[in-house]
Amino acid sequence: MRSILFLLITLSLFHSANSKSMLLLKRGASISVEGNTFITSPDNSFTCGFYGLGSNAYWFAIWFTNSKERTVVWTANRDKPVNSQGSRVSIRRDGTMVLTDVDRSIVWQTNTRTTDVSAAELLNTGNLVLKNPRGDILWQSFDVPTDTLLPSQILTKDKRLIASFRKGSFESGYFNLYFGSNNVLSLITDSPQISSLYWPNPDYDVYTSGRTNYNGSRLAVLDDMGLLQSSDHFQANASDKGFGIKRRLTIDHDGNLRIYSLINSTGLWTITWQAISQPCQVHGACGSNGICVYAQKPKCICTPGYEVNDPSDWNAGCKPTFNQTLLNSKVKFLELSQTDYFGSDLYYKPNFTLKACQELCRRDSACKGFTYRTWGNGHCYVKNDLFNGFQSPDFPGSVYIKLPRSVKVSKPSIFNGSSTTCESREIEIPVGSPSMYAFARRTVRWVYLYSFCAALGALELIFILLGRWFLLRKHGVPTSVEAGYCMISSQFRRFNYAELKKITNNFREELGRGGSGTVYKGSLADDRLVAVKRLGDVFQAEDEFLAEIGTIGKINHMNLVRMWGFCSEGRHRLLVYEFVDNMSLDKHLFNSNFLGWKQRYAVALGTAKGLAHLHHECLEWVIHCDVKPENILLDNEFQPKIADFGLAKLSRRDGPGSEITRIRGTKGYRAPEWALNHPITAKVDIYGYGVVVLEMIKGVKFSYWVVDDADDQETPLKNLSWTVKEKAQCGNSSWVESIVDPRLKGKFSRKQAATLIQIGLSCVEEDRRKRPTMASVVQTLMECEDETEIKVLDKLELIY
Ligand SMILES: *[C@@H]1O[C@H](CO)[C@@H](O)[C@H](O)[C@H]1NC(C)=O
Ligand SMILES: *[C@@H]1O[C@H](CO)[C@@H](O)[C@H](O)[C@H]1NC(C)=O
Ligand SMILES: *[C@@H]1O[C@H](CO)[C@@H](O)[C@H](O)[C@H]1NC(C)=O
Ligand SMILES: *[C@@H]1O[C@H](CO)[C@@H](O)[C@H](O)[C@H]1NC(C)=O
Ligand SMILES: *[C@@H]1O[C@H](CO)[C@@H](O)[C@H](O)[C@H]1NC(C)=O
Ligand SMILES: *[C@@H]1O[C@H](CO)[C@@H](O)[C@H](O)[C@H]1NC(C)=O
């Protein structure tokens, strides 16, 4: 968002006049994104209307008007965002309030059909109500909470607060606040694999936790003073107890329940109470076979002997690296101290020796490990599943993991020391990025951020919506700080323009020219070669430019072109990159200088690794938006390096006066959702990657076939997909041969080719949900990397 802040401020001067806020939405009336209308509470502390993320995902929502990041407290359609154009909320003649998408399908509606609802209004409490002419409330948003409870909003029987799945999104996740059947206000993990209560502390009975279970009224409420209390005698005070402060009670995506207070002067939130002080006490934080550990910050790791299923989603947990049947023969036990898995006890034996406990586990084929608590005479817990793993300095005992004797595992250093593999340091995050308080167990997952390429594309719509808000936050933009993520400190630096002129010999040798600018070759004083990119129409204030550059400059991966520095002087905006020797992939595929099989496979794998790093491991989820052979450079060992990532944030091809085109990327590599007006996610890169992979296999550029008509775009891909399906189904083993580049003259690995073709085709699925993640592509390709068949071909690597 930050990169377009300047734009927004500038342009909102023209548009803020069009934004209409009103106190009542009358029966028969409606609001839409385009209409730029909002309902505000009489004291203006809450606003209700369409809230957008990315280019094209909108929610009918209520948010705090004066919080810097427009904190959303309620959404009507949290799991089903609607389109920016053509979606509307209206109060129909029959009295129902209805949210419809562009195709007029009903996404959400109230249960007020055939009532005399006359208008919707937003109360000062943040409650959206439907009233009849006499002023009776017929429906209220307070009755259907999402993840937040506002002061005076009552959590009752059968209602739940459900945390969002990840930070920055609204979709429902697995952590719930609700009243259990024992009348106790509880936090529970409720995922497909596991349901496990973690607050109040399940190690004690409810009375020890200061609760009772005999009051069946099941009510909880946060009052205006900041006192949270419930019918089971639970009480907590916000640390800033008193009137006049805006607060909210939210169950966060990390499973913790917190009271936040709004600081008037900055519009930021501070935590004034939280239910869980040790983040690893949240159950299910790391999925099955995962363990939540403290390494400067809480994070997830896999149980030794297990490996992660999906690095971007720890809910998916870890899977064994060994064949489970081996647990029936010779086994060994690996001790992890001060660690336990909560629940899943096959047996519990008090007064048991460690040896006897181990024997019990060894003999039971269902046993995956056991916990041994050392207090008293020793307690033995035999586990049939390794769920809810956590490390806790106060845990009096160890867990012993059962592993086949043949499996070699080493204990992660985290279990006896505080060393970590990641260098951790404080970094500055641009405004508009994750907020100050947010952190927790999903350090690996980081932040879900829709790409800026999308944000830029939809600029017009977003800024109309955000115009007012940005005006509010224009003054004093404080930066928030979030500690600890993997980065290697660099020699990243600022150049001045004269210096770059000298380096590039007055921009003499042009290396290439693209949508975002022209690239020149240069040579630094220490003889390092560089590629200097002069950005085209940059319509951006310097501080936003610097913030973006700071982010890109920190991204470091062997398969991504490294940025060494930048220049921002007057209207000049230049980027200085490492020089990559061997030109781009297209130069090595579509002409006589083509790559051999082993190198093509290495390029496919390296590119996947680079994209996976952008998508999953970077601080911000960066979407490239323009994956194509021209943007994949090859170094002198023909290892791929992806160029031009993060640039969608920086350059703008269309001037402010021209018509704004939403669509980014290059024809032929562009996912169908661009044309379909669907939300843009990392899956657009997966699509582009799929096309690149298929082109590498065939050695033919598909995009040559692409004519202006969008429908024709997929034809060569569709044909290929049909061919493969047909031939594979008929058991025709020669199908691989018929697809792979004939210029290779059969010199390739059949298994690798089959795998790559399948990956390529799944990546170009029209339904983006069917496309794999980049992390899973990397995994599949790595499994197939050491193909013996290919060894024979080593000498024939480059066929020139
Ligand atoms: C049960 O809880 C409600 C709400 O907190 C309270 O008003 C009521 O007095 C309680 N009943 C008993 C028997 O404690
Ligand atoms: C919260 O504050 C109220 C009012 O000052 C006090 O009566 C109550 O004991 C406090 N509760 C807790 C749990 O601190
Ligand atoms: C914050 O602002 C509100 C409304 O402007 C005001 O009523 C309240 O007193 C302020 N609170 C503080 C702590 O300044
Ligand atoms: C595991 O090992 C058993 C026995 O050796 C074998 O039958 C089975 O197919 C193996 N399973 C997998 C998934 O490799
Ligand atoms: C534990 O074992 C000791 C010694 O064997 C015995 O005296 C004690 O009664 C046992 N306690 C329980 C709870 O079984
Ligand atoms: C970790 O523990 C192992 C064995 O218990 C020991 O050899 C090693 O030195 C320890 N490492 C650290 C960093 O303490």
Short summary of the structure?
Its main location: membrane. Its EC number is 2.7.11.1. The chain has 800 residues and is of the alpha+beta class.
Describe the protein's architecture and organization.
- It is a single-pass type I membrane protein.
- The chain crosses the membrane at residues 446-466.
- The chain is of the alpha+beta class.
- It folds into 5 domains: 15-143, Orthogonal Prism (Agglutinin, subunit A), CATH 2.90.10.10; 148-277, Bulb-type lectin domain (Agglutinin, subunit A), CATH 2.90.10.10; 281-456, Hepatocyte Growth Factor (3-Layer(bba) Sandwich), CATH 3.50.4.10; 491-578, Phosphorylase Kinase, domain 1 (2-Layer Sandwich), CATH 3.30.200; 587-785, Orthogonal Bundle (Transferase(Phosphotransferase), domain 1).
- Helix content is 19%, strand content 27%.
- The chain is built from 14 helices and 46 strands.
- Strands 39-43-44-42-41-40 form a 6-stranded mixed beta sheet, with helices on both faces. It has a 5-stranded mixed beta sheet with strand order 1-4-5-6-7, with no helix packed on it. The chain has a 5-stranded antiparallel beta sheet with strand order 30-36-33-34-32, covered by helices on one side.
- Helix 9 runs antiparallel to helix 12.
- The longest helix is centred in the last third of the chain and has 21 residues, at 597-617.
- The protein starts with a helix and ends in a 9-residue tail after the last helix.
- The model is unreliable at 1-17, 417-490, 651-662, 706-712 and 788-800 (pLDDT under 50).
- The structure holds 2-acetamido-2-deoxy-beta-D-glucopyranose (6 copies).
- Residues 323, 325 line the site of one 2-acetamido-2-deoxy-beta-D-glucopyranose.
- The site of one 2-acetamido-2-deoxy-beta-D-glucopyranose has 3 residues, from loops.
